[in-house]
Amino acid sequence: TVHRFQFTEDAVTEDEFKRIVYSLEKYSSHPLAKSIAAAWRSKDEIRWKKIEEIKGLGMRAVDMQGTEYTIGSYKVAEAFTTDKAHNIYLVRNGELLGWIDLQDELRPEAKEVVQHLQAKGVKTILLTGDLYEKSKQIADALGIEEVIAEQTPEQKLQKVADLSAAAPTLMVGDGINDAPALAKATIGVSMSEASQMAMQSAHVVLMGSDLKKLPTALGLGRHTYLTIKQNLFWAFAYNIVAIPIAAVGLLNPTFAALVMGFSDVVLGVNSVRLYRKNVLR
Predict the structure, then answer these.
(1) What is the CATH T-level fold of the domain 110-213, as seen in this structure?
(2) Pairing with 210, which of 31, 59, 234, 250 sits 20 to 30 Å away (CA)?
(3) Which CATH number fits domain 2-102: 3.40.190.10, 3.10.20.30, 3.40.1110.10, 3.40.50.720?
(4) Strand 68-72 to strand 204-206: parallel, antiparallel, or no bridges (unpaired)?
(5) Nearest CA among 103, 106, 66, 107 for reference residue 88
(6) Do residues 49 and 96 touch, judged by C-beta distance below 8 A?
(7) What percent of the chain has pLDDT over 90?
(8) What's the pLDDT at 243?
């Protein structure tokens, strides 16, 4: 949510500042941009001649009069200010118009999910493009063990590649900047409310916005894999035992067909057990 903001009073009014921000962020797929657009919705939005979303930077647009606007992280304003403590900066034709600070609202179930993963021996890492100080506060609140902040999409991709080379990795992300890293992770997980790019890049999409579905999805995947191995074992065991017996003529064809059908029933029943298993254990 928008925590506070400041604008250059000599350049724009408060209403004009909000109007510009809304008109830009409306077209962004980033979750933070969507929250701002929802809070500052305006019917009198600017009509753009050209607008584009730049990964790892923000939004850039040109209006009908040729005025250029850029909104995004500190990178869009680093030529105009040394104050990089804010979340979002707005620049117009090379002039800094203002900044916005956002207050993160942690999902109520997030800490519980992190604790569940850690109890399973999973190392948790917060990999983000946000400033380190704010990221560390969030990590401390959730109990996340390591923070890797101020990362571009390219740096996220390389970091996930390095981690995946050392051990299987799972990445959860919902923004367009997360898409390359989601595709690179051993398992990429996104939410159904995420950007289209993130959902298309992820291997798993959780329905809804409840993070508690993540441990369920992981547990279901683990038990499904175990069930497949069990079924393969029983199928191979049956054939290894039955084929030599049949080859020497000790197995009646009718009885063999019945046993084969019974083996299929066993495999089916073993698979149906997934419906009743507690996959969180």
Answers:
(1) Rossmann fold (3.40.50)
(2) 59
(3) 3.40.1110.10
(4) unpaired
(5) 103
(6) no
(7) 41
(8) 78
